[in-house]
């Protein structure tokens, strides 16, 4: 039976204080109180430490007496002081120590000590594994690696990536004296933004053949050292951040190896208040580096694919068209989802006599497959238009070329030639939605033109329609993504387009650019596909 009256309430979990202790000091550093948890953590009973100098009780390691003097001076000034230390009589491991001012009773300090290292290896490694690689952003991943190591394992961590991999995806073994890019830097007691500034993250530099980092990357193994090489010290001195690393007395350079490729290296440093790196530390650093290398390489590969895709997509986008002086033209393109391009395309081709050909097309779908067909059709349409052929012949030849594209999807196109001098326009369609016409101060209407068949069917039957296009009258060409969706019928979408065109263009002084922005912003709320809108009018 439960001992709490039979209710069966869950037993309250007590906090785990096994690695935490507190005690107080007077202004001179002598112990004035000693908690039970301090006895458990350090093994000293209260009677053995009361009234004694903390430098004789715990802080007996190299440089720790100076740290105590600094800490007492800070709390005397009313400030909190923190550090990570190890060695002396603290016991095995590393400890994070926080000194807080003690008000009343003549001052002094409340000291809070928590074991920072070593934690049980499986627990620490699982925590690091959960922390590192939370995203595929290269800089963030490197920062997560550095933050996983500081302060639990080291007082300083710098993460480098091999520049040959970032810039050229070169998988050859790194040469002696390799170029690297500094991705992240963390130092205990220093905000991340300050560390990044002092260590200049993002900088590309060359680690000379004699430097530990270069040796670690070339040999594929750790290198322990106790001072900076001259080249690195001079480089840091030039940046005015020498103190950021020169007060460290134990260093380790660990290569980052993923998929049998050296992708970079990590530099760890410890101050005199911490024990020098030993073989056990090398094993732990190797575990961390193994996890870090895979996550950094994943982020590198993703970044490379993202940049390649962005470059290809930007290269497929049309350039800035040349519009004849007698015309005003505006165009807007909105891809669906995260794609930069899809199946829609538009083009403006200047022709002889001040005329211009306007082309809008739509290859079914969106993403890379539709884009691959789109770019072939757009290039072919531009080339045919540049020949100044009659509109119906342009679509006839484009139809034939589309039928020869392997596995080409359904595609539609509308082709219009505007003649500002003749105040006229010739339009031909290939299965495309009809254009809209908006006279000055009037209502927009859809033109009733021969629709034609989509491209690629070999119909060879396209009929051009000639109409007057007086100055100030706006012609609108678009794709179905602007007017059609599963939540809105095509008729409702066409009616909405006419309404918005009439409303926006009725405002005096409205430019076509402003009109195209307003119309696409209003109608895009229903979009499920790429959107293209081209507005053109003869200048008055």
Please describe what this structure looks like.
41% of the residues are buried. Strand 4 and strand 5 form a beta hairpin. Helices cover 34% and strands 25% of the residues. The longest helix has 38 residues, at 279-316. By secondary structure, the chain is of the alpha+beta class. The strands form four sheets. The protein has a six-stranded antiparallel sheet. The protein has 16 helices and 21 strands. The protein is elongated, with a radius of gyration of 36 Å. It has helices at residues 36-42, 46-49, 54-57, 64-76, 121-131, 138-149, 163-168, 192-199, 212-219, 230-238, 243-246, 279-316, 368-386, 391-403, 490-505, 512-523, and strands at residues 20-25, 31-34, 81-86, 94-101, 109-117, 156-162, 179-187, 204-206, 223-225, 250-258, 261-270, 327-334, 344-350, 356-363, 411-419, 424-430, 436-438, 445-446, 465-468, 474-478, 531-538. It folds into three domains: 20-117, 2-Layer Sandwich (Beta-Lactamase), CATH 3.30.450.20; 121-309, 2-Layer Sandwich (Beta-Lactamase); 320-538, 4-Layer Sandwich (Phosphatase 2c, domain 1), CATH 3.60.40.
Low-confidence stretches: 1-17
CATH class of the largest domain: Alpha Beta
The assigned CATH architecture of the largest domain is: 4-Layer Sandwich
Strand order of the largest sheet: 8-7-6-11-10-9
Report Rg.
36 Å
Secondary structure: helix percent: 25-40%
Q: What count of helical segments does DSSP give?
A: 16
CATH topology of the largest domain: Phosphatase 2c, domain 1
Q: How many beta-strand segments?
A: 21
What's the CATH H-level superfamily name of the largest domain?
Answer: PPM-type phosphatase domain
Overall average pLDDT: 82
How many domains? 3
What is the end-to-end distance? 95 Å
Structural class: alpha+beta
Query: How does the major sheet shape up?
Result: 6 strands, antiparallel
- In percent, how much strand structure appears in the residues? 25-35%
Shape: elongated
């Amino acid at each position: 039976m439960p001992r709490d009256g039979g209710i069966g309430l869950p037993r309250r979990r007590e906090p785990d204080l096994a690695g935490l202790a507190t005690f107080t000091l007077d202004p001179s550093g002598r112990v004035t109180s000693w908690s039970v948890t301090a006895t458990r953590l350090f093994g000293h009973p209260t009677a053995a430490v009361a009234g004694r100098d903390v430098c004789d009780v715990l802080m007996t390691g190299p440089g720790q007496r100076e740290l105590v003097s600094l800490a007492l001076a800070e709390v005397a000034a009313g400030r909190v002081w923190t550090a990570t230390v190890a060695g002396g009589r603290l016991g095995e491991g590393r400890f994070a120590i926080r000194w807080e001012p003690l008000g009343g009773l003549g001052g002094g300090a409340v000291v809070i000590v928590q074991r920072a290292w070593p934690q049980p290896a499986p627990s620490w490694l699982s925590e690091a594994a959960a922390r590192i690689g939370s995203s595929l952003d290269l800089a963030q991943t490197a920062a997560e690696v550095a933050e996983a190591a500081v302060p639990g394992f080291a007082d300083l961590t710098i993460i480098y990536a091999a520049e040959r991999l970032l810039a050229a995806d070169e998988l050859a073994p790194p040469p002696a004296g390799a170029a690297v890019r500094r991705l992240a830097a963390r130092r205990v007691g220093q905000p991340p933004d300050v560390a990044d500034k002092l260590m200049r993250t993002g900088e590309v530099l060359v680690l000379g053949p004699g430097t530990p980092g270069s040796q670690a990357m070339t040999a594929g193994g750790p290198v322990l050292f106790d001072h900076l090489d001259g080249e690195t010290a001079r480089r840091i001195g030039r940046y005015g951040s020498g103190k950021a690393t020169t007060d460290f007395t134990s260093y380790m350079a660990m290569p980052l190896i993923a998929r049998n490729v050296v992708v970079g290296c990590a530099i760890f440093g410890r101050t005199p208040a911490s024990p020098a790196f030993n073989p056990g530390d090398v094993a732990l650093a190797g575990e961390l580096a193994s996890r870090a290398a895979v996550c950094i390489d994943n982020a590198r590969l993703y970044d490379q694919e993202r940049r390649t895709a962005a470059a290809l997509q930007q290269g497929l986008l049309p350039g800035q068209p040349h519009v004849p002086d007698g015309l005003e033209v505006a165009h807007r393109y909105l891809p669906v989802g995260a794609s930069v391009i899809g199946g829609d395309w538009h083009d403006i081709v200047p022709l002889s006599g001040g005329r211009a050909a306007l082309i809008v097309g739509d290859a079914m779908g969106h993403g890379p497959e539709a884009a691959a067909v789109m770019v072939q059709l757009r290039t072919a349409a531009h080339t045919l238009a540049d020949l100044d052929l009659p509109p119906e012949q342009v679509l006839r030849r484009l139809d034939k070329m589309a039928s020869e594209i392997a596995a080409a999807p359904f595609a539609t196109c509308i082709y219009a030639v505007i003649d500002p001098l003749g105040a006229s326009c010739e339009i031909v369609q290939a299965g495309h939605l009809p254009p809209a016409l908006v006279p000055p101060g009037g209502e927009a209407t859809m033109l009733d033109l021969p629709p034609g068949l989509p491209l690629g069917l070999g119909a060879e039957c396209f009929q051009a329609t000639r109409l007057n296009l007086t100055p100030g009258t706006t012609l609108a060409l678009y794709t179905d993504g602007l007017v059609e969706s599963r939540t809105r019928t095509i008729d409702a979408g066409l009616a909405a387009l006419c309404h918005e065109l009439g409303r926006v263009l009725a405002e005096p002084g409205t430019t076509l650019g402003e009109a195209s922005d307003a119309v696409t912003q209003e109608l895009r709320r229903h979009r499920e596909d790429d959107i293209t809108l081209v507005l053109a009018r003869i200048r008055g």
